[in-house]
TrEMBL record:
Highest rank taxon of the organism: Bacteria
Membrane-spanning segments: 20-41
Keyword tags: Membrane, Transmembrane, Transmembrane helix
Keyword Transmembrane applies: yes
Coiled-coil boundaries: none
Record's protein name: Zinc-dependent peptidase
GTP-binding as UniProt keyword: no
Organism annotation: Aquimarina gracilis
Length: 288
């Protein structure tokens, strides 16, 4: 009788164990297949990028987010947003809403950061990264605003803008940001300049497809600029202000400023350089 009870016990346990083993096997199989599919698709996209110089796709959002109603009017005042088609406008608004969710805005020296200020910076950020699939930068989650210039503890200098990757923060003088945003600063744009630093640093540290395109194209641009003739021509035309020649990071930041502020001038004088910048950001909206 005891043997019968033990035998029946094992008969009852066996289906349960088999079911558990089957479930575990399915999960492991799905996991392995998913990893294989991911790397195959990633490899295929890398091949695609080498030929097309852009990612498979830019926008894919299971749920499209919307901005709070009190922030939406600011979109209509933005020239870039107004130039987009209906679908692109939805994507722009979605990205703006996500950026605002993920980013902390801090005012310093008594400055109160309101919706207008947050949206002006957000829209510039979204415009600069609108051609990139990965637009939320891992090394930027805080925007610090000062009324005007501020003393930088990091650099021990008086600054109007600074990107600090260690703190994942971007510090800006609101006064100077607005001057550039309203095109009152002779082609300069503090926001474009400092955001480009953040994008550049992010591209060095990350390996997502947008970062790879930015960094690989930047290296190609560096090689192209190895020509003394090209460098002399850039200096002679004075298309870039002197600060661009501080180092390679400042060079690309100033270059992107020119690309965004005076695309036609850059394209006419240096079509190859224009193409490199357009490819780095996958920003083809001036061509539409």
């Amino acid at each position: 009788m005891d043997r019968l009870v033990v035998y029946m016990f094992f008969l009852e346990e066996e289906p349960s164990n088999s079911l558990l083993q089957t479930v575990i096997g399915v999960f492991i199989t799905v996991g392995i297949v998913s990893i294989c599919v991911y790397y195959v698709l990633r490899y295929l996209e890398t091949v695609y990028v080498k030929h097309k110089k852009k990612p498979y796709f830019i926008h894919f959002y299971p749920v499209i987010k919307k901005l709070p109603s009190y922030l939406k009017p600011f979109l209509k005042e933005n020239d870039f947003y107004s130039s987009l088609d209906k679908k692109q406008k939805k994507y722009f608004e979605h990205r703006s809403a996500r950026f605002l969710e993920e980013t902390r805005f801090v005012g310093r020296e008594g400055l109160v950061v309101d919706g207008f200020m947050r949206m002006q910076i957000t829209m510039m950020m979204i415009q600069l990264t609108f051609g990139m699939r990965n637009y939320l930068l891992d090394y930027l989650n805080t925007i610090i605003l000062y009324p005007s210039s501020f003393y930088s503890i990091l650099n021990k200098t008086e600054n109007i803008g600074e990107f600090n990757p260690r703190s994942r923060a971007l510090a800006l003088s609101w006064k100077h940001f607005q001057r550039g945003n309203l095109h009152q600063d002779k082609g300069k744009s503090l926001g474009v300049h400092e955001i480009t630093h953040a994008i550049h640093y992010n591209s060095i540290k990350n390996n997502d497809i947008s970062s790879e395109i930015f960094y690989d194209t930047f290296l190609q641009l560096e090689e192209y600029l190895g020509s003394q003739e090209i460098r002399n021509k850039i200096v002679e035309t004075k298309i870039l202000r002197d600060y661009a020649y501080t180092d390679k990071f400042e060079f690309i930041a100033v270059l992107v400023e020119v690309f965004m502020e005076s695309p036609n001038e850059l394209k006419n004088k240096f079509p190859e350089i224009y193409s490199y910048v357009m490819q780095m950001l996958n920003f083809r909206y001036f061509e539409e």
